[in-house]
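Project outcomes to date are best conveyed with an example. Our students and postdoctoral researchers have been running inverse folding experiments weekly, and each run begins with a structure described purely in tokens. The record below, which covers 362 residues, was selected by the lab manager from last quarter's runs and is presented without edits.
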């Protein structure tokens, strides 16, 4: 299979949708023209697809996730992070988890109105909601569509606590709302920093903000009084895991008071896509990286069991966990704040009073 690598895109393949009964495969006719045809592919434009959402809140019962509800303004993500755990979800709408995931984006313009309706239901009980748990709420298209900001306006009006994880400096656009929420202990923001190596970041997460921009955004948020943390994720054995301490150190200097990490996960199609990406960009270490990944998953490429899917098992994973714990202590983040829903105030939630009906005046 020739590489489908495109400038500004992360994936180098576009695997078929796993739910479809038929698929198309490329085959060289013997004249050696297949590789030549794919040698100089044009850039792929971003396609926006309007989605009529049925609900605003997505619920989960996963015991190893610190929230039970989330809001996702977008399906797919233009950041193009090759390792993204959300890629397989694109198959649910009949699109490939590969290049389709980062070029064919679905947006939900009705989301703020739906959210207001759901939060107004009698009996709704507020707990922190994760904004963008599946894909980044501040990916490039948010700059023009503004759905994430509209969602934050609804949450502020209801006094609803929210957590945000992003790779984008665009989060600073909403500094005004975030400051007001922070003053009421209703928000914390986490910047995901995977690497400080600009060359690696450019091919691994091509349309996300540069690592330095993310650290700068973290510093601005912290200076504005907004609780901020860093998520060093994913840590990829043999590729970026040696940067863990440096990432935490730079984030602590910028003002992060909490931190987390996740070891690389390769569920479903991500395994083949990540392996193809390694062969494209890091052929000299591809076998070593995959061998270390298997070492953290009991000899398999992935272990989806709750409780260990985020951290892995075995000596390599245990060493990474120890390094993380020691780094927190070394850089003063131990005990300064923790990532999780228990730190935010849920008692301020109130559904705004509806406008009085005409008959009530009689």
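After processing, the design step wrote out the following sequence:
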């Amino acid at each position: 299979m020739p590489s489908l690598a495109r400038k500004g895109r992360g994936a180098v393949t576009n695997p078929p949708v796993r739910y479809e009964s038929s698929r198309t495969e490329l085959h060289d006719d013997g004249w050696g023209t297949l590789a030549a045809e794919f040698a100089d592919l044009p850039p792929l434009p971003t396609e926006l697809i309007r989605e009529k959402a049925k609900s605003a809140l997505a619920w989960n019962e996963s015991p190893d996730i610190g929230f039970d509800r989330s809001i996702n303004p977008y399906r797919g993500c233009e950041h193009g992070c090759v390792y993204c755990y959300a890629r397989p979800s694109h198959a649910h709408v009949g699109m490939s988890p590969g290049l389709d995931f980062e070029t064919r984006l679905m947006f939900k313009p009705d989301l703020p109105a739906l959210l207001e309706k759901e939060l107004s239901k009698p009996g709704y009980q507020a707990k922190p909601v994760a904004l963008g748990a599946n894909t980044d709420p501040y990916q490039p298209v948010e700059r023009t569509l503004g759905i994430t900001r509209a969602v934050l306006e609804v949450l502020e009006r209801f006094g609803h606590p929210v957590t945000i994880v992003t790779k984008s400096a665009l989060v600073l656009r909403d500094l005004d709302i975030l400051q007001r929420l922070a003053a009421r202990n209703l928000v914390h923001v986490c910047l995901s920093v995977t690497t400080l190596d600009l060359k690696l970041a450019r091919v691994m997460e091509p349309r996300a903000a540069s690592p330095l921009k993310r650290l700068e955004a973290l510093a601005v948020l912290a200076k504005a009084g907004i609780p901020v943390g860093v998520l060093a994720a994913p840590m990829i054995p043999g590729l970026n895991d040696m940067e863990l301490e440096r990432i935490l150190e730079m984030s602590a200097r910028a003002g992060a008071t909490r931190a987390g990490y996740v070891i690389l996960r390769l569920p479903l199609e991500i395994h083949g896509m990540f392996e193809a990406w390694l062969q494209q960009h890091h052929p000299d270490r591809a076998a070593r990286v995959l061998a270390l990944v298997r070492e953290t998953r009991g000899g398999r490429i992935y272990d989806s069991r709750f409780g260990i899917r985020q951290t892995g098992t075995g000596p390599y994973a245990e060493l990474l966990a120890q390094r993380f714990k020691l780094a927190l202590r070394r850089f003063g983040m131990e005990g300064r704040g923790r990532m999780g829903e228990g730190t935010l105030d849920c008692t301020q939630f109130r559904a705004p009073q509806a406008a009085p009906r005409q008959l009530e005046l009689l």
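The first strand starts at residue 47 and ends at 50. The chain has a mean pLDDT of 91. The training component of this project remains on track.
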